[in-house]
Each structure stands twice: as structure tokens, then as C-alpha cells.
Design brief:
Chain lengths: ~90, ~230
Amino acid sequence: MTSFRFAVSVMPRPGILDPQGRAVENALPQLDAAAVHRVRVGRRVELSVDAGSPDEARAVVERLAADLLANPLVEDWHVETLEALPMSAEGGR
Amino acid sequence: MRVGVVVFPGSNCDRDALHAARLAGAEAELLWHEQTDLGGADALILPGGFAHGDYLRTGAIARFSPIMGALRDHAERGGLVLGICNGFQVLTEAGLLPGALLRNASLRFEHGWVQVEVAREGTPFTRNLAVGTRLRMPIAHGEGRYYLPQEQLEQLESHDRVCFRYAPGSNRNGSLNDICGIVNDAGNVCGLMPHPERASEALLGSDDGMLLLRSMVESAAGSGAVAA
């Protein structure tokens, strides 16, 4: 078994109003950043999976993303492979 | 007639719901979310609050609570389930009701009294309520904007599954079609954002919520039959 690490980025689907993005935009004039627009706020989840192969680990993450980390009705997601963490960095495992 | 009120870690309207169910004439008890049986409950209420801290998305983690298997079986047998506020969010995440409740378009946590219009009569939750009846009930939520993709929304409407709408001026979260309460196709699972249990005694400012709760209790007591 090897430990594989991934990041799952979850974003509101295009066309769905994102009030968090809107709230960030509302702060921009005070930051002298009027050139910034179309702000969307999502979520990033990093996780490690023990598996026999990278493909096996990735399949677990894809399933988790669709079933829990994102709501497919309103959110899109993207799974990215990260460098494995040294065991000492796994905080409590 | 026995009502079970499901308590998730972070539920905070469970005791209000328990009290209101008893006022509506039912025996009622709390059911901890780790239970895998319903303790003989004839109808279930998923109360408001912040199940599992609302982490990830509202209702997203509650959906995997151990009690949800028994709840699903109960719903499939035609048993009544009422999700109030966070309970509605849990039911959509669990796929027992369509759609999603997104962050309010107003960028605010919306709370206060609203006027709700009955949009469909004759469901187990609106049996004594004619279409157009106005109910005064409070809302209190940050994520109450009902959303469903256009095609599915049209289907929801054509199947007459919207049972409550915000009256003009009361849609403070940006819900599509002013929707604040829906039922499933069989009519035995209902979710709504306003709080009937907080409008259960005149002392609280309104007892209109009792019309809904009494309807549920009478329907569950009357028979196992469910209005389609």
C-alpha cells in the first residue's frame, strides 16, 4: 500500500449566482482593484488515500468528489494529483 | 400517532419541533441520528439547525448519518417525512427531494416573519389548507435559495409538487419561482424553509404553523395511505 495525495477543487457551476464571489467583488473598490471582476469562490479539499496504485486511489477520490465533496447539481469539481506527503506531515495519522 | 424528531449534532430546533408535534396531538420523541431504527415513529420531522456544523455544505454530512437508511425505508413505504429549514437541506442532499438550497442571493442571513402561500392542497401536509391560504411563519437561514435547473424546475411545476411559495414581498433569499416548500412525487416527503414549529402558539406571534403540523399528524393517524 502506498499513500497518494490529491486536491479536489469544487466550484459553483457557471451561470449559478455565487453570492460569496459577489461579496468579495463588493470589497474591491476599497482595495483600488476595480480592474478585478468575475470573482467566483469555491472550495479546495486535500486528502490522502492508501491504495495499491495511483489509478485505484484516484477512482476513490472521484467517487468521493461526486458523492460528498461536491453537489453535482450546482457544482463542478476537478481532481489534481499532489506530491505525497512525508508520513510525519500527515498530522495525527 | 407517534412523531420522531431526528436530532443531528448541531440541530437546534429539535425541542421546539417536539413541543409543537405534541401540541398538534401526537406523541413525540427525539431520535438521535446514530440510531438505526425509528423507535416506532409513524412520521418523522427533520428539524432546523446546523447539522454537523453545516460543514462542506448544509445537509451534506447529515445525509450519511446512520439513521438515514431507516428514514429512507420509511419514506419508501409511504411514511411521512417533514424537513424544516436545515431538515429540508438534508432531504435535498439525500436525494429524497429535488433541488438545492443555495446561499441567499441577498448576501445576508435572512430572518424574520414572512407570508407563505399554500400552492397545493390535499397533500398530507396541506390537507385542511386551500390553495392561496396565507400562513405567517418565521424564516431564519443563510442558505435558503431554492434552485433547480430550468428543465427540472418546469417538471416540478407541471407535476404540481410545489406546496408552499413566498407571498409577494416575502421571497428574501432569491428562490426560483418563490418556492419555499415542495413535496416528492408520492407526496409523503415535504421540505420547507419557514419554521411551522416557531409559529405554533399565538404567544409566539402566530399559530399558523399548527395548520401544517396538525395536517401531518392527522394524515399519519388517519391511515397509512398517502395522497398522490
